[in-house]
Design brief:
Blueprint (H helix, E strand, L loop, with lengths): L2 H16 L4 E3 H7 L3 E9 L8 E9 L13 H16 L3 H14 L4 H15 L1
Antiparallel strand pairs: 1-3, 2-3
C-alpha cells in the first residue's frame, strides 16, 4: 500500500475519534494553501509512518459558489480560535490549551474537536 493510501486510511479512522467529516494531512493542507479553510487538530503518528504530522479538519473551499463546499459563516473565527488552542496544545501547555478550547465551546458549543481536545488536555494535566 502506498504512503498516501495508508495515510488516507488512517485519517478515516481519525475522523471517527474527533467527530469530523474530512481530515487531511499537513501535506495536503500545504498543497491546497489558501484555497481551503482548514483548522489544525493535532499531531499524530500513524502506523506505517515513522514521523508525526499535523492533521487538519477540512471545513470548506474558499470562494466556492457551491453551498455544499463553501465554508459556513463563522468558520474563519473557529479556525483562528483553534489555531491558538492548538499552538498551546502542541507546545505541551495543556492548561492554556484547555482554556482556549473552553473559549471555543462557549462560542461553538457543539464543536466535537474542541470537546475531544479539552478532554485530552484534562487527561494530560492529571497525568
Amino acid at each position: 500500500m502506498g504512503d498516501g493510501v495508508n495515510v488516507a486510511a488512517r485519517l478515516e479512522g481519525i475522523n471517527k475519534n474527533f467527530g469530523t467529516t474530512i481530515c487531511i494531512s499537513s501535506n495536503v493542507a500545504a498543497a491546497a494553501g489558501s484555497d481551503i479553510v482548514a483548522r489544525p487538530i493535532r499531531r499524530v503518528q500513524v502506523k506505517g509512518r515513522q514521523h508525526e504530522f499535523m492533521i487538519y479538519e477540512l471545513l470548506g473551499i474558499r470562494d466556492s459558489s457551491d453551498p455544499e463546499l463553501a465554508a459556513a459563516a463563522g468558520i474563519e473565527r473557529l479556525c483562528q480560535m483553534t489555531r491558538t488552542a492548538s499552538d498551546h496544545f502542541e507546545r505541551g501547555d495543556f492548561d492554556h490549551a484547555a482554556q482556549r478550547y473552553e473559549e471555543i465551546l462557549r462560542v461553538f458549543p457543539q464543536d466535537p474537536v474542541a470537546k475531544s481536545l479539552l478532554a485530552m488536555c484534562s487527561a494530560m494535566t492529571r497525568a
